[in-house]
Each structure stands twice: as structure tokens, then as C-alpha cells.
Amino acid sequence: MRPKTIGLIAHTRKPGAAELVRALLEEFARFSLPVLVETETAKIAGESSNFSIKDLGHQADLLVVLGGDGTILNTVGQLGEKIKPIFGINIGSLGFLTCAASSAYKEAVESIAAGKIEFSERALLEVHVSGAKAGAQVLRCLNDAVFSRGEASRLIRLQLRVNDEYLTEFNADGLIIATPTGSTAYSLSAGGPILAPESGSLVITPICPHVLTNRSIIVDETAVVEVTATERDYPVFLTVDGRDPVHLEQGAVVTVRKAAQSLPLAALPGVSFFSVVRQKLKWTGSNV
Asked: How confident is the model at residue 286 (pLDDT cuts 50, 70, 90)?
């Protein structure tokens, strides 16, 4: 379906961002599609606007985000509960979440104007924090919740319960709880599996565990995962989607579950998750 209003957001420090914003505004105007531009994005293109990302979440039907995966994660983090479909154009590096290269911006606009884009419903995590220095919080993220040791070169202890059943106490550099979308991010680097977006699962991956038999665990997306910071001597930090860390006191409890909302993430027609994996991870088959 053709969107009625576009919200345009760019990573303003990326090379070529200003030129791409101006080119997109011209293309959308050619198809008579109204565009609301985020404030900082408007500035680099010589335009004037007072829309925050949250404002665009309320007023636009589709958010076109220029940058890399981090720009999309930042956008989702600022939308709050008003999650809107996102179409990502890559001017970053890896770009697992983006669906078009910056050089293909005309094709992207044509697909949007013709209502030919497809959407993949991506699970979000809801993270409840109690016992942190900043007080009780509820955070939402697209990729992952990461428990880490901060700057101290020491192992931390994290007790894990799944659906109120004790599983183990990890003695490790940290722990990652990821959605299928986040399974291709930090969890993958830490040795975790790749989950297809529609797999209906979450993955729990320890980071450099002291016990070699500690490995990634895949749980159902309805699972409730409870992590307790049991470390007495060294700080534990929680980071969701790369945002500012939350300092967890000893005894702090973090409950992670699938959020009620999901993110409709755009893809161009004929582009599958597996084709993106092959391209981004450079899976070309054996050279033998």
C-alpha cells in the first residue's frame, strides 16, 4: 500500500548524507509524496523543520532512514511505543537492516510510491530493570540486551532463570539476549546461531564463559528470561541496542520478554533474508 506521508531521518555525520537527503526530497516530490523531515536531517540539507523522531512516529506512515544498522536501532529507541514501518537506505557499513543501497535511491522511491515494498515483522524486546542505580526502568530494543563487565578486566556472575526455572549462574565476560534480528549482530560475533526473522525464538549467548560447556541457548519467543546480577566486587552494566549503559547493583533483576509491539521492516520485492545473509556474510561456497 502506498504511504500517505513519509518521515525522513538521516545519520547526519555520514559522508554523502546531505546530498542523498536533497535527492530523496526531489524524488518524493516527483511522485507527489509529502515528506516530513527530522530536525537535524533538515539542517544538513539546508531545510527548516521542527520534527523530532518521536513526532515522525506519530505523524508519518513510513519512516525512511538513511544510515546503517545503528541509525535504525537509534530510531526505534526514540519512537517509544509508537512503532512505525521503517525503510532503510544504507550509507553505513554492514547494513543488515537496510534494504537498499544509497545508489539505488530512485528505485527505492519508485517502489515506495507504487506501494510495492514488502515488510518483515521483527520482534522487539521489552526489558524491565529493577535495582539499578537509575531506578526501575522499562526499555525496548530491536536487537539485544547485553550484560557486560564494563572497563574492569574481570569475569562477572549472572544468575539466569527461564520461565521462573533456575538454569545456571554464568561466570563470563557477559551475556547477550537477542531477538532473531539481533542474532546477526553481537550474538553472532560471540558464537551464537543465526535465527531467521520468523523463527519465533530468542537466543541467549554467553560472552567468553569460564565454563566451556556454557553455550548459546535458543528459547521460545514467549519465554520470560530473568537475569540477576550476583557479582559482589565488580560492576555489571546493561546495554540495550548500544544505548547508554545502565549500572546494575548487586541483586538487581532484569526481566526480558518479547514486547507486544513488533517492527515492520521494509524489503524490496524479491529480496529475502537468506539472500541478505549470503551477501553480507560473503557466503560464496567452497573454493576447494
From this structure: low
Backbone φ and ψ for 112, nearest 5 degrees, come out as -65, -45
In the chain, list all ranges with CATH 3.40.50.10330. Answer: 6-117+268-280
| pLDDT, tens digit, 9 for 90 and up, residues 248-267 | 988 999 999 999 999 999 98
CB of 262 closer than 8 Å to CB of 123: yes
Whether the CB-CB separation of 60 and 53 falls below 8 Å is answered with no
**8 Å CB contact between 88 and 6:** no
Tell me the backbone φ, ψ of residue 181, rounded to 5 degrees.
-60, -45
Note the pLDDT tens digit of each residue in 29-57: 999 999 999 999 999 999 999 999 999 99
Is pLDDT of 229 > 60? yes
Taking all residues of the chain, what is their mean pLDDT, rounded to a whole number? 92
Q: Which of 69, 144, 173, 241 is catalytic?
A: 69
Matching CATH number, 6-117+268-280, of 3.40.50.10330, 3.40.190.10, 3.40.50.300, 3.10.105.10: 3.40.50.10330
Instruction: Considering the chain, tell me which residue range(s) the CATH 2.60.200.30 domain(s) occupy.
Output: 124-261
Residue 200 backbone zone (phi > 0: left; psi -120 to 50: alpha; other: beta): left
144 has catalytic annotation: no
CATH of domain 124-261: 2.60.200.30
Tens of pLDDT, residue by residue over 171-182, are 999 999 999 999
